[in-house]
Amino acid sequence: MTEIREQVLQLLLAGMMAGLFSLLADRVNDLTTGKPASEEQRREWILAGSCIPVIFLCLLFRSDQAPLIPHLGFIPLTAALLYARVSNAFILTLLTAIGSLLLAPGLDRVAVLIDSGVLLAPAALVLSSRFKQGKLAFKLTVFSVLILAQFVLHYITVLTAGDTSDSFSLSEVPIYLGSALFSVLTACLISFMIERALNNRKLRSDLEQTTVRLQLESGKLKAYLEYMPSAAAILDRQGNIIHINTTMLEYYRLRIPELHKEDIVGVHFSTLAESDRLQELASSFDKALQGERDTKISKSGPYIYLSSISPIYEPDGEIMEVLYIMQDMTELEMLRSEMGNVERLSLVGQMAAGITHEIRNPMAVVRGFLQLMREKSPVSLDHYYRIVMEELDRANGIINDFLSLAQNRIVEKEDSHLHSLVQELVPLLWADANLRGQSIELKLDDSVPNLYLNPKEIKQLILNLARNGMEAMGDKGMLTILTRTVGEYVELEVRDTGSGIPGEQMGKLFEPFYTTKTKGTGLGLSLCKRIVDRHHGTIAVHSDEGAGTSFVVRLRRLADYPAAMSELQDSKEA
After folding, report:
1. DSSP string, 32-96
2. Which Pfam families does UniProt cross-reference here (predicted)?
3. DSSP category for residue 16
4. Residues 249, 262 contacting (CB under 8 angstroms)
5. How many CA within 13 A on the CB side of residue 395?
6. Alpha helices, DSSP H only, in 228-329?
């Protein structure tokens, strides 16, 4: 019975390593400080922390009454030797040998060292490299063979000693065989627990690394969304907004200026959508949930957007979220419109160049003969001659507009005052106004400085804008011409009290050949735009239906006029 109690106690003590290793494997990360340790260093700490106390407990509770029952501290030692590096294995072996000699002072020292498992250390270290790379079955086999070898060495040592060989009985053989068998099972349990703990650590480490990578990728994705020029929002499957970027926030602030991101996240997209686009967005969202990508061009006020709603898939193929992107296409559409205007102007130039000499000369001949025929015809026909000659003059004016619009010539500018050009046109404008029963009001700011202009073109600009305003008004209308200084610019405004311009026509006013007049050519405002562009200015139109229209021309004032004149002189000499 002594042998059995000794064996059970030693097995329990040796088996403690499995529990200690599992416990420390979960806690060692919390115990490390300073520079992060590698996975191999953590494994060494875990082995040392679970192996050393078990070895010394086995030595401490060893009984001298059962010499054939070895202390099983060599089981955790062997496990540590198989899993540790050579340097750490040497330290563990040395500590075990010292502990065995100190805790068994009355025994033969050679027997004590053999009993401690130190002699198997070289074999365990030789097998360590292959052991670590092998599968679990191979590891269990190697571990079991080393444990059985230690038992063989122990029995040989004990049985060859004279004081114990006489006390050996065959009836005790099953006990010793059972001791060896249970020791092997304990070793297998320890190895299995070590492998399980190491695998769990590896899985947890992989999970932590994957989590970090996902967080980094998520951060990158949010950064991409945040700084991309397009407006972007991420919606969940219920249509609630999960994330928006600053561009999308600015889009919503066009309608709700006091809006913040915190007010939007978690809100259903239908809450913030325009009422006229709600059905369209809901349809696109439903398509995205079915795996379809929907792209449309939509208009919101003066802005044109290319919107795209796409599904975001999980790794298993399920639709996780929906990505909503809006690209402001207003400027691009304006560029396309400008390109269309350039193409039209190019066509106008080709037409004008072809028809100038072919039509103008015959028209001059026809007009001359009409004047001769008018002198020789009765007075009753004067009305018809006048109509024909006016139409010829109108056709000649259209040809002149063609030429002015199509020519891409360098404009010669000079020191001019805007008020002088306006005053030169006042008699002509008053004559037109009196014929229509209209009035003209001048509001000229005395602070307006000299500008760098082409007088002929600026006069044509003012005349075109003024006559357009007169044609838009009825009797007793008021045409107002204003000038003012705004910072670095001088503004010229021509305002009428006509019926105004419908909103759908505002974007096409400066397109060549676009007109709302029955006898218009659609070249007047295009010509005005071309003149302003050649003076590096801007022209804008503001209109309220039923309240009138105003055209505002903005020209940059010269901060250093002498330098500009010097630059002009140099360009002429070149």
Report:
1. --SSPPPHHHHHHHHHHHHHHHHHHHHHHT--TT-TTS--TTHHHHHHHHHHS-HHHHHHHHHHH
2. HATPase_c, HisKA, PAS_4
3. H
4. no
5. 16
6. 246-253, 261-264, 269-272, 278-289
Residues near 278 by Cβ (< 8 Å), separated by ≥ 6? 270
Q: Which residues contact 84 (CB under 8 A, 6 or more apart)?
A: 44, 47, 92, 128
User: Letter for the amino acid at 218?
Assistant: S
- Render pLDDT for 18-40 as a digit per residue (tens, 0 to 9): 777 767 766 655 444 344 456 66
The Cα–Cα gap between 37 and 33 comes to: 9
Q: Is the pLDDT of residue 561 over 50?
A: no
Return d(Cα 487, Cα 92) in angstroms, integer: 86
Pick the closest to residue 526 from 515, 511, 541 (CA basis): 511
Which string of b and e fits 344-371 if b means at least 16 CB within 10 Å? bbeebbeebeeeeeeeeeeeeeeeeebe
Identify the burial level of 469 via C-beta atoms within 10 angstroms of its C-beta, where 0-12 means exposed, 13-18 middle and 19 or more buried: buried
Lookup: tokens for 21: 């290793």
Query: Among residues 321, 328, 317, 327, which one has the least CA distance to residue 234?
Result: 321
Sign of the alpha-carbon dihedral angle for 414, 420, 423, 424: negative
In this structure, how many other beta carbons lie within 10 angstroms of the beta carbon of residue 120?
20
pTM here? 0.41
Average pLDDT, the chain: 76
DSSP assignment, residue 256?
A: -
Spatial separation of the C-alpha atoms in residues 164 and 154, rounded to whole Å: 12
* Strands 303-313 and 319-328, bridge-based pairing: antiparallel
Q: Determine the Cα–Cα distance for residues 492 and 551; give it in Å rounded to an integer.
A: 8
